[in-house]
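SAMPLE LOG
Freezer: B-3
Tube label: C17
Construct: single chain, 157 aa
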Amino acid sequence: MKPLLLAGLLTTALAMAHSPAKKDVPMPHHVSGSFDIKVGPLEPYNKEDKAVGRYSLDKQFHGALEGTSQGEMLAFGTGAPGTSGGYVAIEKFTGKLEGHNGSFVLQHNTTMTKGKPDMNIFVVPDSGTGELAGISGKMQIMNDAGKHSYVFDYTLP
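STRUCTURE (predicted):
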């Protein structure tokens, strides 16, 4: 290799090694835990259609998420096992996420087809407060014979 070319490569390599680091990219986190939930009926908007319901949600989270959430859900379904239906919900979590204090809002959109759920639960952008400001993420919830658990993939700035 020619000395000038080698000197140029070394100069470039040293400059890159000593240049300011690029802006930090948020690290994704994958956490899980359990939650207890109380669902209560609320006054329906359409009192004549019994297949559409309105409900309050009160949750107590355990594990990586330690805290509570309150929310409201609108749902459609016949109530028979293995049938189809759907729900939308908004809930606000307040507490700690892996030691970070604050709150954020989750938005649910779920469709049930012949008993099989297609669930979409996301953190509402810019809803994080305190040490959870700037959070983004997606949650999955599972119900195994009445025992509820979650998996939460998130990033914090």
